[in-house]
Amino acid sequence: MISRRTLLRASVLSVPVLGVGVERVVSAATPATLPVDVVNNSGSNTVYAYVTGQAIDNGNALMLLEADGRTPYYPPSPSSQTPVAVDCAIPLNASGNSPRTITIPHIAGGRIWFSIGSTLAFSVNPGPALVEPSVSNPSDPNINVLWDFCEFTYDASQLYANISFVDFVALPIGLTLATSSGTQTIAGLLGDGLNTICSALTAQAASDGSDWGKLIVTSNGRNIRALSPNQAMAGGTPLFSGYFDNYIDQVWSKYASSQLTIDTQYTWGTVTGQVVNGLLTFNGVGTFAKPATKDVFSCSSGPFTTGNDEMGNISARLAAAFNRTTLLIDSNQPDGEHVSDYYTAAQTNHYARIVHATATNGLGYAFPYDDVHPTGGTDLSGSVQSADPTRLTVTLGGPGGSGTPGA
């Protein structure tokens, strides 16, 4: 089951497997390289960028950009985990100064990483496979560093990039894509976005007694990130036990006596399902078992791993509806959805609700299938995409140079 976000990390962007509503644009091949202006508005003069991904024009080999911001480095496969041997920390210009321009080749599953105050530690496993910084491993050498990333794929047909809060919130990152036909902008969080989100999570925990406040990670008395529920639970931490149980029971009760209609927004068209013998059953396609709370937050465990491509498509729309808690409101998914109805249930993904409420224009991935939206409706995933890109600008520090707390 592949979301657009997963597709970015896995392969060259192509016709969407799940048909979320993005059409492949047929055009002349993009240039072999693309300039990327990296703007430091963080308030710190010690900021580093990193670029990682798979080099499409070199057999999808693992690559990083070296510290000069233009030379690809292809790590060899080591016999055991080994630190990256070449300096790949790209120093940015001082805060408020001109951008640092880097050059990217065609890259699949790309990330542009940022760290403030110190460099990041990357290593390589046999394969080679990149060992990236982790927010869920308490022994990770980067655990107390203020860092974040945005995602992109740049291939022969287009550039696609997005900001992401799927795993955590930390630094405010914005995107501006210049194309031959215009400009697209995703402003991201304001400079104080992390602290705003942490305050709202604390308030939600006080309101419902649940574990929202435990998503906040601090270091030396400052907030350095807010984990998504999925990441916070990744290490087996017993958070949000049974949180969605009551809501899921109500959904199962509703659709035991009525039908749920799902538009696959793809060649499979519209399908209907109903709960039969405890399973949400789509005749001729497959069944979907009652999920647990951790399955809803992850969108990738339990029943969300089930079936063929068509069932995976259905599961993606169910994942979005469960996280947004709209299944009791709307039995026509996702085409009957209204953004104003998202997250209105008492038991909902309040992390996603708070992130969207804080992000400029409400845009940015807050869970893996946050790009599911009604045909012709609002896509909240916070992405830019073009078949004729000329320059990408990535801004650290919030729109208008609003800065980064603690930088």
From TrEMBL:
<dbReference type="InterPro" id="IPR037398">
    <property type="entry name" value="Glyco_hydro_64_fam"/>
</dbReference>
<dbReference type="Pfam" id="PF16483">
    <property type="entry name" value="Glyco_hydro_64"/>
</dbReference>
<feature type="compositionally biased region" description="Gly residues">
    <location>
        <begin position="397"/>
        <end position="407"/>
    </location>
</feature>
<dbReference type="InterPro" id="IPR042517">
    <property type="entry name" value="Glyco_hydro_64_N_2"/>
</dbReference>
<dbReference type="InterPro" id="IPR037176">
    <property type="entry name" value="Osmotin/thaumatin-like_sf"/>
</dbReference>
<feature type="compositionally biased region" description="Polar residues">
    <location>
        <begin position="378"/>
        <end position="388"/>
    </location>
</feature>
<protein>
    <recommendedName>
        <fullName>GH64 domain-containing protein</fullName>
    </recommendedName>
</protein>
<feature type="region of interest" description="Disordered">
    <location>
        <begin position="377"/>
        <end position="407"/>
    </location>
</feature>
<feature type="domain" description="GH64">
    <location>
        <begin position="31"/>
        <end position="398"/>
    </location>
</feature>
<dbReference type="InterPro" id="IPR032477">
    <property type="entry name" value="Glyco_hydro_64"/>
</dbReference>
